[in-house]
Amino acid sequence: MAEHRHPDLHTDMLIDGAPVPAAGRAVRATVDPATGGVIAEVPEATAADVDAAVAAAARAFGSDAWGGLLPAARARLLLRLADLLEADAEAFAALETTDQGQPLAVSAGFSVPNAVEHLRYYAGWVTKITGVTAPLSVPDVDYRTRREPLGVCALITPWNFPLMILVWKLAPALAAGNTVVVKPAEQTPLTTLRLAALVREAGFPDGVVNVVTGGPEVGRALVAHPDVAKVSFTGSTEVGREIAAGAGRDLKRVSLELGGKAPSIITADADIDAAVAGNLMGGLLNSGQVCAAYTRFYVDAARHDEFAEKLAAGAASMKLGHGLDGATRLGPLVSAEQRDRAEEYVRIGREEGAHLHDRAPLEDGDGYFVRPAVFSGVTDGMRIAREEIFGPVLSVLPYDDPDELAARANDSRYGLAAVIWSRDIGTANRLAARVRAGTVWINMPPMLDAAAAWGGMKDSGLGREMGWSAIEAFTQVKSIWTSLA
């Protein structure tokens, strides 16, 4: 396997403000999924590294350098980090594309700008985190609350949007005054490590932000550490259950953004061409490696064939290639394992009796590419309609009775997101109220904003990120009673 090094790489962990190189310890390779070539090797953290990182974060939390910092000064640090990231946006986007596979249109057009936006948004919250006063039925007492940081927070991030989802957690955690230990996904650590270098450049006190790299054992050690007050995790439902069980025993706070199987409801009166275009974007963004990807499409039986054929034709026309090629619409999946998983579901869909529309053949190469697979005539019980695939496999399901739509959309263990396409805004909003999902989009592809709460129902997770909800997630309320007698 050839080695393809990226210029100006940062591969050191960050513990207590100091870079920790791979020298003398085990390493793990990170690979360009479009070529199969090794980009770099990063350290495999030990239990001692995790202990050192948590200890550094605990010291920083209790220090005057961070804990005594005035809110306006903390806000300026976040704004400085946002400016540094924005100034380095081109390099971050290219690195995200090389390490994760997403096209530059996604990394440069969405992931990096969204991360910058989040840092600036939460910088604005720093000086506005307030408590309340309340009248009590106790004489001569003044009562008020303070909203205070939790302490050391473990931030465990996924491989599909490594930089962006890290900042979703990092920005509110720091805005609230916490300190953090970050564990990026082992497949895609490079933009996290580059951001760690900017954290130092921005002037954050030592130990406020720490980064340890490695596989699942590193994450488990971090979750189990007795000095970690909160775990914020984005990833699979199975791992989320394991984290929640441990956090429950240890009485740690936890936020979980987990799997999804988003339904897309296309009513009989919907603009089919607009729905096809929006669903292609929603279903195939980042080659379907999105928790909220539109993956099961409920279409009026009279329009089922038209929709499926247009969806398949649109998917087949999308150019596959290396994400650094500006013409690429679909990049590779993140790993050989993920590629094989997606192709296994294509095989399962055919065996279950769904109709697979024509797929253009793949060119020879070493990358982890999967041509989009559009199935029609899918039924609710098929595995391709029920299980999260995290790849470009789309299922079109016909319906006859509009009254059955909400129940069918809700017949899933997941509840992260849903979308409704209808010309009748009343119909769309009535359906939106009945669908059990944390986010419902109406007549639009998936959108996110720092001010809009994000999270799931059912097996899609616990808690919310973004907006004021994230400040609540990284703080706790203290009651203060003062005698006036």
From TrEMBL:
UniProt similarity note: Belongs to the aldehyde dehydrogenase family.
InterPro entries assigned to the protein according to its UniProt record, in alphabetical order: Ald_DH/histidinol_DH (IPR016161), Ald_DH_C (IPR016163), Ald_DH_CS_CYS (IPR016160), Ald_DH_CS_GLU (IPR029510), Ald_DH_N (IPR016162), Aldehyde_DH_dom (IPR015590)
Catalytic residues as annotated in Swiss-Prot or TrEMBL: 257
Keyword tags: Oxidoreductase
Aldehyde dehydrogenase domain mapped to chain residues: 28-480
Listed name of the protein: Aldehyde dehydrogenase family protein
Domain of life according to the entry: Bacteria
Organism: Nocardiopsis changdeensis
Any matching Pfam family: Aldedh
